[in-house]
Design brief:
The complex is a heterodimer of chains A (579) and B (76).
Chain A lengths: L2 H14 L5 E7 L7 H10 L4 E5 L5 H6 L4 H4 L4 E5 L2 H4 L16 H17 L2 E6 L19 H17 L5 E4 H8 L1 H4 L2 H7 L5 H20 L4 E4 L10 H4 L11 H17 L3 E6 L3 H8 L11 E6 L4 H12 L6 E5 L2 H10 L4 E4 L7 H8 L9 H21 L3 H8 L1 E6 L6 H10 L12 H9 L3 E10 L2 E13 L10 E9 L8 H13 L2 E4 L8 H8 L9 E2 L9 E4 L10
Parallel strand pairs in A: 1-2, 1-3, 3-4, 4-5, 6-7, 6-9, 7-8, 9-10, 11-17, 14-15
Antiparallel strand pairs in A: 11-12, 12-13, 13-14, 15-16
Chain B lengths: L3 H9 L20 H15 L5 H6 L3 H10 L5
Helix pairs in contact in B: 1-2
The chains are: A alpha/beta (579), B mainly alpha (76).
């Protein structure tokens, strides 16, 4: 869509929409109204219809600090705050020979006020890190000045980033990164700056809006969990079944170097919590011989699963999804063959496909333009995920050899059920946002709400960490119990199981039983809950039905016995949940 | 080439038939300062021209816009 068409599309959406959407408030030190249609359309396309409110011009402090401000009255779910350094530095001389700290005070003060406002409003804060100011009086000489405009601007930005990242749940967009991508001559609009205090052109607003929308989407929906890659002409040049393992191209000074760079990128994705799986139409011995090449960067132990056979790739992906206990909608397929990609697109419409270009060195543009592999910084659980799947394949081997009861006993499962700290909030929110199968269904509490509940003595929150003799599961469960105060009209001692989620890969081993037993321990005499009749949460529904829960109805639960094959602690291991 | 009245109608959300050379922010409902900026952007994008700050301020009516565009070589 052209920029103009995007604006017209937003007009159409606004005039025809009947229901209320996500309330997004925009606060800036300049006229930011032109960004509205781009954020609106980007969120709409992400399946998150939004209502956009632009706060009064250059009133960030006031709108944040005053609990009765126009912005507060909108009851926003998302607060977007975008200051410019030019505006914050307006009353003083530009950096030349003064220490940089003085140029950070207003920005850091603004961050504190914005974080406090978002906490009070129970809203997600999206803070746009300001760009380096365009005016650098020394021009090319500014780079040589450790307290020049660029240096002081960069120091202010990094101080801001650190301050923001210290608050859980804050999303950060970066105006400098956008200008770097577009180029400042295209991003900045001096005509509109003079006329209307609009510093940027439409392209800059559109590009920044897409990033803001993408961040909001990532926080709500989570990133893609699995990258499925083909082998021939995706990991190496050529076809290993024809060219032989020594004949495929992995050499320097040519396309082979590009394939290896691509593999390095895959390893970085794996490191941040994404799983790598292989789907290749080949004979297994050929593919593993290719992997044995010493130039290979990716190794078979980096793969969480593989299917090397002549079945349709959609079948392979379905099987791998089942093996890993994940939905196919969390898969991305990277494959050079258009035929393979369309086969998968037709059979599994939720799988995103990305082409590996014919000139493999173009992979970088193709994959990054796509943006679908983007993810927020990983929690410790994310980083451990790829390795924990390796443990899973060893469990599967043992499982085949014995009965289910023997298997469970042989695991020596241990759970740690403990109160989440502020540092755990990211993982807590992630579990609530991303768990689709073992969950009560219904409303998912946002990170801001969970943070508020943790601080409120009316709620008791617990995170569940587990390990067995095959390895660490990481933090895989979360629950929130609402201890209704007696004056709510209910007799004392009744509690509501408000949130109850367990990661797919930990299901079916008794951990859910341990969690429910622990919830009763927190609750008092009675524990009630509502489990919704959703499309995906059958495992949770079936489990709770065994304890008296009627789907869609507020039900009193029966207390389970603690599963005898699981041991537990209820204190923190200090090293566990640090992000 | 998109007729100017049609473009204005789409951006400001008014019936193009009601727009003539005398139409301006004073006479057209919805043609406020932000709509004006949006309109200038749409004209720049559609006709591949660039307005200076002075020209943006001068473009106070549809007739003025037509004259500015003509001076920039845009045949409407």
């Amino acid at each position: 869509m052209t920029l103009l068409n995007t604006r017209l599309e937003w007009q159409r959406i606004v005039t025809t929409r009947r229901t209320t959407g996500l309330a997004v408030a925009l606060l800036a030190t300049f006229t930011v109204n032109p960004i509205t249609p781009y954020i609106g359309v980007a969120l709409e396309e992400a399946g998150i219809p939004a209502d956009i409110f632009v706060a009064p011009y250059d009133q960030i402090f006031q709108e944040c600090a005053d609990p009765n401000s126009d912005t507060a009255a909108q009851r926003p779910a998302v607060l977007v705050v975008w200051p410019r350094l030019e505006d914050l530095w307006a009353g003083r001389p530009y950096p030349l020979d003064d220490p940089s700290e003085g140029y950070q005070t207003d920005l850091l003060g603004m961050i504190d006020v914005a974080v406090a406002a978002a906490t009070r409003m129970v809203a997600t804060l999206v803070f746009v890190l300001p760009a380096i100011p365009e005016m650098r009086p020394l021009g090319v000489g500014d780079a040589s000045n450790p307290v020049g405009v660029f240096a002081v601007g960069a120091a202010a930005r990094e101080a801001a980033r650190a301050r923001l990242a210290a608050s859980a749940g804050v999303l950060i967009a970066d105006a400098e990164e956008v200008i770097r991508t577009i180029g400042s001559s295209r991003a900045v609009d001096w005509h509109r700056t003079a006329t209307a205090r609009i510093p940027y052109g439409e392209e800059m607003f559109a590009a920044t809006a897409r990033r803001i929308a993408h961040l909001i989407q990532l926080q709500r929906q989570g990133p893609k969990k699995v990258v499925a890659v083909d082998a021939d002409n995706t990991l190496w040049g050529g076809v290993v079944g024809e060219d032989g393992p020594e004949g495929v191209d992995l050499l320097d000074n040519g396309p082979g170097a590009a394939f290896r760079d691509f593999q390095r990128y895959l390893l970085e994705l794996r490191r941040s919590g994404c799983l790598i799986v292989l789907t290749s139409k080949n004979e297994e011995h050929d593919v593993w011989a290719g992997f044995a090449r010493r130039e290979m960067v990716l190794s078979p132990t980096d793969l969480a699963a593989w299917r090397v056979n002549w079945s349709p790739k959609s079948t392979s992906i379905r099987e791998i999804a089942e093996e890993l206990n994940l939905g196919t909608d969390s898969f991305v397929l990277i494959d050079d063959s258009a035929i393979e990609r369309s086969e998968v697109e037709e059979a599994l419409p939720h799988v995103r496909t990305v082409p590996m270009p014919e000139a493999p060195e173009d992979w970088f543009d193709t994959v990054t333009i796509y943006g679908g592999l983007d993810r927020l910084p990983p929690t410790a659980s994310d980083r451990a995920r790829a390795d924990s799947y390796e443990g899973e394949s060893r469990r599967r081997v043992v499982r085949k050899a014995m009965s289910n009861e023997e298997f469970l006993r042989s695991l020596a499962l241990h759970v740690e059920i403990a109160e989440p700290t502020l540092g755990d909030l990211a993982r807590f929110a992630q579990l609530v946002a991303k768990t689709n199968q073992f969950t009560l269904g219904g409303y998912r509490r946002t990170a801001a709400e969970l943070s508020s509940c943790i601080a409120d003595s009316r709620y008791v929150a617990r995170l569940v960490d587990a390990h067995d003799r095959f390895g660490d599961y990481g933090v895989i469960g979360a629950m929130l119990v609402d201890l209704f105060p007696p004056q709510e009209g209910l007799p004392g001692g009744i509690a509501l199981l408000d949130t109850f989620v367990l990661s797919c890969r930990a299901m079916g081993r008794g951990i859910e039983l341990a969690m429910l037993a622990a919830a009763f321990g927190l609750a008092g005499t009675e524990l009630w809950t509502i489990v919704e009749r959703g499309p995906s949460n059958t495992p949770c529904r079936d489990f709770l039905a065994g304890f008296g829960a009627e789907p869609g109805q507020l039900s009193a639960l029966r207390r389970p016995s603690w599963p005898s094959h699981i041991s537990a602690t209820t204190e923190r291991y200090a090293s566990r949940c640090q992000s | 080439m998109v007729p100017l009245n049609e473009l204005i109608g789409a951006v400001i959300d008014v019936d193009p038939a009601t727009i003539n050379d005398d139409s301006s922010p004073l006479t057209v409902d919805g043609w406020d300062s932000l709509a004006h900026i949006s309109l200038i952007s749409a004209i720049e994008e559609t006709y591949s021209v660039d307005f200076t700050a002075a020209e943006m301020r001068k473009a106070s009516s549809v007739g003025e816009l037509r004259r500015l565009l003509s001076a920039k070589g845009v045949q409407l």
